[in-house]
Amino acid sequence: LASLIRLYILDPFDFDLQMTLAAKEAEPIRLGDPNGAKLGWNSWCFAGNTMGETSALFPIAASSTQPPVPATEEIRFTHEKKEPSTLIDYYQQELARLRDLAADYASNHPELSAMVSGQLADAGVERLFEGVAFLNANLRQKLDDDFPEIIHDLIDAIQPNYLRPIPATTIVAFTPKANCTGSQTIPPGTELKSFPIDGTECLFTTSYPVEIHPLEITGASFAQPSGQPTAITIKFKLSDMGLSTWKVNTLRLFLAGDQNDAANMYLVLMRYLKMIVITPLQNGRTHTLDASHLKAVGFADEELLFPTTSSAASHQLLLEYFIQPDKYLFIDLQGLEKWLDRGDGMEFEVRFELEKLSFALHQVTKADFELYATPAVNLFKHQAKPLSVTDRKAEYPIRPEGIHPEHYQVYSVEKVSGFVRGYANAISYVPHEQYTGRTGGNPLFKLRKHKSKLRSCIDFNIAVIDRAMTKLPASELLDISLTCTNSALPSNLVVGDVCIPNANSPVFATFSNIKIITRSANPTLANNRLWKNLSLFGTNLHRINSKSLISLLETYILSDSRDNQEVQKCKTRLEGIVGLRITTIDRLFGGSMQRGWEIRIQLQKDCFTSDGEMYLFSAILERFMALFATQSAFTLTVIEDVHGKQEYRWPERMGKRPLL
Which listed site, 136, 315, 447, 475, has its alpha carbon 20 to 30 Å from 20? Predict the structure, then answer.
């Protein structure tokens, strides 16, 4: 390695920076010191023979406005600065600055003050200020751009949701109608409508498949009888059919209690379950299943809320946890097809026998469980306004159709077709990033995403190009199929408002949302967030400590446009990470020795509102940490309370696959 290493600093530091080298300590250079070894506007250098294990502290340069921080003081991270986001914000700042300059100029030159300031000021001067402010606002917005287009194609390929709005979400439950006398399946992607808001009905699509049965929950209880196993019991009743004719393999339950009660129930069923006992209440025989027949839901690639690439699916688990944690409070009771001697009755109970609990569970009722529920997301198919393509413009803005266009926001472009006057057949356009040389003579289209100048959102522009990546001059009409959201409109909805059938809604069931609707969010782009997100995909596991882990996880909290209280709750959970230790271990699997990592994380229980919330966060964290292992290494994650009162251990995992 060269002995001279350049360090690039994108933003000013307000804390000390710790650097690590081998062989010798780096030279003590003060960041920001104008007399130091500064190589450029945002870069400094330090000397050392090789990279390695010797640490050196770079204190921030002292100034008249900020005293030096003692080297022994612990680094405290501050919240992101609130910068102007839209063109209007920049314009107002620039106009105010020009007026202040005019007032200062008038005070220094009284003989000219009437021309530039006061009630008798020349009206042309004010118009000049407004024009200059508008030009400066555009320039400042571009100079402050935290939306580097140079990496857009790469971001789109590995994690497209970093450049997309996050739509509103909720949990919807279906209720079978009286004419539902058999089992039916509602596929994912079923569209549901809400009551109109300002003349627009919000559209939601379901995320999970829902199996509907003529079955209802009639009761639920929790008991700790003396001399008998602690158990949670749920009673069910069929209608219009007997148990002997009911065909079912899996029964999905949603833990529908309030946030803390539902999370505690999830913890109990996932960690304290010994066995499952199914008993018919009329005749038939009891059947027993082991605890492995109760499965967690929400972690599989096909159970994601938002569409994404396969390489980014595991990263999205954490993003969706911070947006809609209720999506993980589903459980599947599997193996019901093994229950053969059910009898001909219509009622049965499922008893979950538990180990001794380490905390008190709330009073369990049937309201804690919901059948036929699914997450629903404010995403739907929509059309863009037709675009007339000429040779006068390089690109065109994409605008959704609708009487109220502000009620729609583009999420993604699904299909682009062109129609040329005099030709009956449509021309199919191919995304330029999918061009491989085997797409024939089809023209290409390229999307450019940029921050809106008028709203806090992302706007889409489209350019049509030929295979040589040059603009097409042909005059034609573009028909663009979109996936859209209703932007912030769903935030006006309450529980029960998503209940209006759409064209493909099921006719054998009614529905309504049983949870509040999460607010939509825009990608957080400030402070070079895209570069930080991109760096996640190259993070080395054995270089992570507790503070860097918190910084990584913070990139998944989308703060723009979201409820500040919910954002603060997410950050409080991250503050609960107080320790991280990663060591190498070896295990014998399949007759061969495998090298892996033991990841031990300590959590501060006080940062969580319940034992269940800490466990659910731990379960998500375990999946996240497995991302950083290589294909030939496994991870073993252990998460413990910092006070040593509780420990959760997961099986060895190689990526997404558990090792047996």
Answer: 315
pLDDT tens string 183-232:
899 999 999 999 999 999 999 999 999 999 999 999 999 998 888 889 99
What sign does the dihedral 403-405-408-414 (CA atoms) show?
Answer: positive
Buried b (16+ CB within 10 A) or exposed e, 504-520: ebbebbebbbbbebbbb
Q: Which residues contact 204 (CB under 8 A, 6 or more apart)?
A: 170, 172, 191, 192, 193, 194, 376, 377, 378, 379, 380, 498, 513
* Residue type, position 541, single letter: L
| pLDDT value of residue 72 | 33
**The dihedral of CA 372, 374, 376, 382: what is its sign?**
negative
What are the two backbone dihedrals, phi and then psi, of residue 144, each rounded to the nearest 5 degrees? -85, 10
- Which helix (DSSP H) or strand (DSSP E) does residue 295 occupy? strand 294-296
**How far out from the chain centre does Cα 509 lie?**
30
The secondary structure of residue 264, as a DSSP letter, is H
Distance CA 516, CA 492 (A): 10
- State how far the Cα of 472 lies from the Cα of 469, in Å rounded to an integer: 9
3-state secondary structure 527-576: CCHHHHHHHHHHCCHHHCCHHHHHHHHHCCCCCCCCCHHHHHHHHHHHHC
How far lies 370's CA from each of 111, 217, 219, 318, 650, in Å?
A: 78, 8, 11, 24, 28
Residues 6+ away with beta carbon under 8 Å from 452 = 86, 458, 459
Q: Tens digit of pLDDT for each residue in 453-495?
A: 777 778 899 988 765 555 554 557 899 999 999 999 999 999 9
Residues in Cβ contact with 183 at an 8 Å cutoff, skipping those fewer than 6 apart: 211, 212, 213, 214, 246, 247, 248
Local structure of residue 585 (DSSP, 8 states): E
| In contact, 380 and 483? CB cutoff 8 Å | yes
Q: Which residue has the tokens 């709203």?
A: 455
Query: What does the pLDDT average to over 130-142?
Result: 86
- Residues 6 or more apart whose Cβ sits within 8 Å of residue 134: 91, 94
**What CA–CA distance (Å, rounded) separates 55 from 479?**
59
Segment 597-655, tens digit of pLDDT: 899 999 999 999 999 999 999 999 999 888 777 777 888 999 999 887 889 999 988 87
Q: How far apart are CA 379 and CA 376, in angstroms?
A: 9
Q: Please say whether the beta carbons of 326 and 515 come within 8 A.
A: yes
Measured CA angle at 565 (ends 561, 567), to 5 deg = 60
What does the alpha-carbon distance between residue 478 and residue 446 come to, in Å, rounded to a whole number?
13
Q: For residue 133, which of 91, 83, 99 has the smallest C-alpha distance?
A: 91
Q: In whole angstroms, what is the distance from residue 378 CA to residue 486 CA?
A: 7
| DSSP symbol at 606 | G
The token duo for 501 is 């059938």
